Amino acid sequence: MKFVFASSNPSKTREASEILGDKFELISQSDFGITAAEEIASTFLENALIKARHASFLTGLPAIADDSGLCVDILGGAPGVKSARYSGSQSNDEQNIRKLLDELGYQTNRKAFFVCVIVALNHPDDPTPITLESRWEGEIATKALGNKGFGYDPVFLIPGLNRTAGQLARNEKNAISHRGKALKRLMEELSERYSS
Ligand code: IMP
User: For a substitution probing ligand 1, which of 83, 91, 96, 167 has the most ligand atoms within 8 Å of its CB?
Assistant: First the structure.
């Protein structure tokens, strides 16, 4: 079964394809020349639905989309859906991390989680899309450590491991991350729904 994957990020598409295997084929939306939908909503779920519907509408194919970010408890869930542009519309990872560390200051409650929401739908008006959410709980470190991964990985401390996500190899991170877990659950849900 074929799906358009509503992302233009090649490493995301590759990671998702590796987990979904041969049974569910993903074609990146960039292969159709589709530009990304605007993520205008205030929840991850709504943004994932917007992206999936947009890609499905423009290709006529079933679609899968994800939306993810970092939520910090004491900041009321910020940076949340604004994770990629926390310190402004043109911001980069380093600037976003700087802003986050500044906002937290000497705060001792540094609990946070990464979240990944995935949506799969048959067509833009599908009344019963698959929706699922996976979290990765951790804490915000007081300084950046490690140069692997992307985004907030260097300041995301993993309890028990005493390392940041920025210090994990790609396969170590995928085995425990919000995105890795969400994709594995998606595989199970798709297999159940399209078993015949
Ligand atoms: P998107 O779902 O790819 O749009 O991710 C939004 C933003 O959330 C990214 O630009 C990162 O800032 C942050 N983010 C999401 N997942 C991760 C992760 O696994 N590590 C670090 N940052 C992440």
Answer: 83
